[in-house]
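In these records, each integer encodes one residue's backbone shape. Here is one protein:

___
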Amino acid sequence: MEIKSNNIINTKGVNISTVFISLVIVVPLVALLFSVLRVDFDNFYYLWNNLLVDYSLNTIYLVLLTSFFSLIFGIFPAWFISTSKFKGKNLYDIILYLPLAIPTYIMAFTYSDILSYTGPIQSFTRKYMTEISNILNQYYLQIEILAIIMGLALYPYIYTACRISFSLVGSNYVDLCRNLGMSQMKTFFRIILPISRVAIFSGLFLVIMEVLNEYGAVKYFGVNTFTSGIFRSWYSMQDVDTASLLAVSLFIIVLIFFFLERFTSSKYKFNYLVNTNQKSEFSLTNSRRLIIHLICLIPIVFGFLIPILFIINNVISEFSGINFSKLIDLIFNTLLVSIVSALIIVMIAVLFQFFRKISKSRIVIVFSDIISLTYALPGAVIGLSLILLVTSFPQLINSNIFIGSFFLLIYAYSIRHMAVGISPLKTSFEKHPSSYDDTGINLGLTPFKLFKKIHLPINKSAIIIAFLLCFIDIMKELPITLILRPFNFDTLAVQTYQYAIEEMIPKSAVYSLSIVMIGSILLIFLKNIVNKYIDVSKG
């Protein structure tokens, strides 16, 4: 006789706990929305006539261009590595992930120095290629160059999603196209690309969210976006109303992209495991093999090797002036906030997914989906929301205690990156059949023992993956840290930004290198876990 999971758990208690935790996570956003109701509409008209159009056009233009370059850098290497056999394929597959270890603002600082008037490229072009030097020095290419740089930093989101999706497509489709006389590229554009659009949209959504969240890069390049506008209004002009209006406007844009991604994911579905046999690979001529090497090398060279070599060169040149005591303190601070925040996120995410699995409560399902929205909220929006929250109730909350506190910083990190922890855990929990729970219940296991003896062991890899993903993201986080960090509490990201914004790029190099090295080691470790956890060739 089958015993339902609901019989071993207090569904009411689970529902209450789920709602409470969800409200704790989303309540800052509610505070932000309510703050707009108190805004003087004169500010709104000023914002609409003078700032909003400029911020909107720049933000959307940057999103579109960055998305385009991320798609170019991510899709084609993923396709060739998934379907072709050539020397260096496995090495390429590892290194193509590594630009994720380089935050977009570090990539921007590095290339800005490389492309500057006194940098190596313009120094060379001024001497030998004057016309190109004049083009590189033009203001009108500011957003375009920034988009390329951000595309090089963010394409791994596209690459990761496409790499899995392309690998899951069975040989039957490829063989059928081959029998019809279709080339590898025709097969890709007519069959594989439409099949994989859900994966492409999901990776693209992450790219868009990162662009909307970006502050360091756009600030350094002088591009007026919503995020830079929020910081300028809040810090420079002390204009809370304008900052709130900009934050809400940005939130509306984010919601549009969020629901668009959900719509495309629900509308276009494909069962990769249908008609899937052993993977077949395309045979390559020498010329085509050379083209594939070039396609894979371009994002690797420009997205990882050049930035890392430039950073290392700056570290060597500034080595004698490095304050190692300060460096150790910053590494400790970064590791501390990243570990604590990642642990909190993973514990909450695991609890949510366990409740969702065994209770099958509609309330749990709905609210666990609601908190997934938090990743779509830029750091500037979350930081401003929390400040508005703690200052809105002076009778109940002493804002002096919370603003600039370690607690508020961890709280903000947890809100921003909760969805990052939930995603791999949700996938892992859902792929295991309910019969595991039914068997445990029939054996008399309590919910705690059911979690300890069944769910914890079988989801261990997913828990580690979730922790590492959260850790890497939090370590690179800049907007939230700038807004909410305690007094005299800096991280590697903050110190890198502060030196760069003061045009002291070489001095920032050692802190940039620390972020990149820690991130690269964790990404390689993460990829090894994923490879053991998931056989992408079989789905």
About this structure: Residues 432 and 458 are 8 Å apart (CA to CA). The first helix runs from residue 11 to 36.
